Amino acid sequence: MTATEGADRRLLVIYPPGIGYYVDREFPVLIPGYSTVYALPDPQIASQFRTPPSGFVYPEYVPVVRGLPGSPLANRHVRDLPALLDAVRPSLVVTYECFSSLSDQVARSPRRAGFRHVVLCYETVPAWHSLWGWFPLTRRYARRTCHTADLLVAHSAKASVAAQSVGAPAERILVRSPGVYPPELRDGSLPIATHAPFEVTYIGSLTRNKGVLTLVDAALRLRGSQALGHEFRYSLIGEGPLRHEIEQRAAPLGDRLRLLGRVDEATKAAILAQSSVLVYPSLNIRFGPFVRWEEQTATAAMEAMAAGVPVIASDSGALPEIVGDAGLIFPRGSANALAERLSELGESVVGESMGYTKSHQVALDVTRYGDGGFVEKKLETMNIIANRQLLPGDLQAGRHYTNPGGVRLGVSELTRLGMKKDEMQEVADILHLALNSEKVAEVKRRVSRLRKSHQTVHYSFKTSPAYFYGQTGAKSVSSS
Fold it and tell me: Among 272, 192, 257, which residue's Cα sits nearest to residue 229?
């Protein structure tokens, strides 16, 4: 079927380059009563559609600005958009992401009066902290698109907030999760009751932001465990730059962890059918002090839920919203929250590109303030206890353990007192003020105010006052 045949009402979906993973798992945009035509940058993408649209066209995509950093999504548009619109004659045009050059190109088209414009929004990070928001050109795209689009379909409530951060009117935003093709629904009980061993499945890229190393580390900790009366086995579906590191790190697990690479839909459905649980451990990743990434749509989690497979997911981005009460959400951790906020405030946190930490410790480079010994003493005068800490490269730079380049922030005591991610925002703000000023009295006041509301021990067999004193002879002894 050609692009101009079919129903009178035509829907044109202009598919951007650089995001080929969108189409292979989700429904194409098909609306009853419309003849749908997809404009694609590569004919090979057409073969990934499970429900083909009415037709395909292949316009030429060109860079908007040569040499502009960032993904092709932000810097590619159709060379001759008027010719494409004349060929298809759409009454509705769909583009992806408000910050893309394609969305802006459609928004500014001289033929704009002849069709309605719908933008699909996945990005969950507010504009000024997103990967694209730091480029003036893409910020301009987003503002124009959000002000002119007839409808923005946000795939999560967080994506709606991100669109509103660049001026999208709330009344023109529709929050709808993208669809998935559910694999075969299995019969009988959940595999937690019927399967041995306990099959843990991961589907996604083998990249740091997806948190796959968190899963591998958890698997190593569970090695030999017979929790729930099952042996644990792991199947990781996907490819990425961490494959070799995972192979090395997971070597002690032997054949209990399988790296399956990319698989076809039938194989994936068969693996899901035998899964006890799907784990989605995404992280929040920062790129410098302000720019960050978090999970957006979690298609694999939606597929698993549709197939009746329980999901265990982190609280990154839109995951809690997507999973809802159909699975378990685990926190990325108070230490991570503290590190993220300190980085956002401009402090130099060690390990940003790797998710900061996998423990209750955060390492902070304080060489801009002097050295770790000086900072340790300064913080102590403000009622903040931290430890000086040697950092990689300190010995080569001539620093030593008494005056290293860093300090170590341990949050296990704060967690024990019931402080969570929200409190870590305040802890980070207090630390930032202490490091960058001499306002001793103000810092002490804020420390005291924060501590007054956290006086009970949590995560123990019985809650009790955090600090009580008993008499042993003539001396008082703290329970902590």
Answer: 192
C-alpha–C-alpha distance, residues 385 and 277, integer Å:
41
Q: How many CB atoms lie within 10 A of CB 367?
A: 16
Contact 127, 101 (CB under 8 A): no
Helix (H) or strand (E) holding 328: strand 327-330
Provide CB contacts within 8 A for 100, sequence distance 6+. Answer: 16, 73, 74, 141
Which of 26, 52, 29 lies closest to 302 in space, CA to CA? 26
For residue 159, give the nearest of 145, 143, 172, 176 by alpha carbon. Answer: 176
Residue ranges, the chain, pLDDT below 50: 1-7, 21-27, 185-194, 228, 469-480
- Please work out, in degrees rounded to the nearest 5, the angle formed at the alpha carbon of residue 319 by the alpha carbons of 137 and 311: 145
* Best CA proximity match to 333, nearest among 307, 314, 311, 306: 314
Would you say 103 and 145 are in contact if contact means Cβ atoms under 8 Å apart? yes
**Which pair of tokens denotes residue 99?**
């910050």
Task: Classify the phi-psi angles of 377: left when phi > 0, otherwise alpha if psi is within -120 to 50, otherwise beta.
Answer: alpha
Domains of the chain, first to last: 10-175 (3.40.50.2000), 191-330 (3.40.50.2000), 334-464 (3.90.1150.10)
In the chain, % helix, strand, coil (3-state, to 5) comes to 35, 20, 45
Contact 86, 72 (CB under 8 A): no
Residue 405 token pair: 């380049």
**Buried b or exposed e, range 218-234, using 16+ CB within 10 angstroms:** bbeebeeeeeeebbbbb
Residue 293, CA atoms < 13 Å, CB-side half-sphere: 17
pLDDT on residue 74: 61
What is the number of other CB atoms lying within 10 angstroms of the CB of residue 142?
30
Per-residue tokens: 415: 């967690």
Q: Distance (Å, rounded) from C-alpha 282 to C-alpha 13?
A: 29
pLDDT of residue 244: 94
Instruction: Please say whether the beta carbons of 341 and 422 come within 8 A.
Output: no
pLDDT score, position 201: 95
Contacts of 274 (CB under 8 A, 6+ apart): 191, 195, 199
Asked whether 149 and 18 are in contact (CB, 8 A), the reply is no
Beta bridge partners of 286: 292
